[in-house]
Design goal:
77% of the residues lie in helices and 0% in strands.
Length: 314
């Protein structure tokens, strides 16, 4: 029985929030298992490629049959080469590398605040720089709250660097991850890219740019890898969750959520992710909920909701 458009929207929102939240918790949990960060990046790319690239090939088949020149990267990407490289570098390659390395240094609670929590901040700043989008007073207040939350979380861990701690490295990587995804978002906005085709394109770029180099470096013993030490269930789980779930399914569900609720309500829905993932990290991973993390989380969440509310009232 077919779902109604309303129920499709609700289901898409639920899947998106669950996968975004799980991405942070599973990413941190994976740091205590066998596979190394670059190994997990490899599973992510392989899993997404198995689903999205055959789909992309099928999508372009009619144009190829007509003799039209379509896509790039030997037919793997449905987008032109320029768009594929720019979107793929930020949204496919750098996002994966930075985020999974970050999980090996800093707790999931920090990732909750500094990745999805700070994303509106970096996206707005980049759109102001490259697309000349104006920042009004209300948005400025919203971004100020988010910035205060980020400083409260990342700043304290940075101070601990003088005591020999390395959590600040993960915090820095999480911030760079948010900037990378914000750059991808601005690229999508600038070129008016379709979300599904863009997801296929960044997967194709990641496959071509990362996998051959990774394979050669591991074969030459230049880059460490624990694939040979990992059990098959762990590898299959990472391929399924990181690639199929976090890339393919969440990309489709997020796109459908935007269609059902629009960008404003969708942003309000995804504002649940920082809080849910932080609480999940406490319950599932046993991470401590410190006062500065709670305060930073509250500031970031209030900043996102304030900005969305002001936008919805216009």
């Amino acid at each position: 029985m077919a779902l109604s458009p309303q129920n499709v929207g609700r289901l898409s929102a639920l899947i998106t929030v669950l996968l975004w939240t799980s991405f942070i918790i599973v990413g941190r949990a994976s740091s205590s298992h066998v596979l190394l960060p670059f190994d997990i990046v490899c599973t992510r790319i392989l899993g997404a490629s198995l689903v999205l690239l055959p789909w992309a090939w099928w999508m372009m088949r009619e144009q190829r049959q007509k003799g039209e020149r379509v896509g790039s990267l030997l037919g793997l990407s449905p987008l032109p080469l320029r768009h594929t490289v720019q979107a793929g570098f930020f949204g496919g390659l750098m996002f994966a590398l930075l985020s999974y390395m970050g999980f090996f240094f800093a707790p999931a609670g920090h990732a909750s605040v500094l990745m999805p929590g700070s994303l509106p901040l970096w996206t707005t700043l980049l759109m102001w720089i490259f697309l000349s989008e104006k920042i009004g007073m209300n948005r400025g207040i919203s971004l100020g709250l988010i910035l205060m939350g980020d400083i409260l979380v990342g700043g304290l861990s940075l101070l601990k660097a003088f005591e020999g701690g390395d959590v600040w490295i993960g915090d820095l990587l999480f911030i760079l991850t948010a900037i990378s995804w914000a750059s991808y978002s601005v690229t999508v906005r600038r070129f008016g890219l379709d979300a599904v085709r863009a997801t296929m394109a960044i997967t194709a770029f990641a496959l071509v740019s990362f996998l051959p180099l990774y394979t050669v470096l591991v074969f030459l013993n230049i880059l460490p890898s624990h694939f040979s030490q990992a059990a098959w269930p762990e590898i299959l789980f990472q391929v399924t969750f990181q690639g199929v779930g976090s890339v393919a399914i969440s990309g489709i569900s997020f796109t459908q959520m935007i269609r059902s609720y629009g960008p404003v309500k969708s942003t309000m829905i995804t504002a649940l992710v920082p809080g849910l993932s932080a609480v999940g990290a406490v319950i599932i991973l046993g991470e401590p909920m410190s006062w500065h993390l709670m305060a930073g989380l509250a500031l970031v969440t209030c900043g996102i909701l304030f900005g969305v509310r002001q936008a919805s009232e216009k």
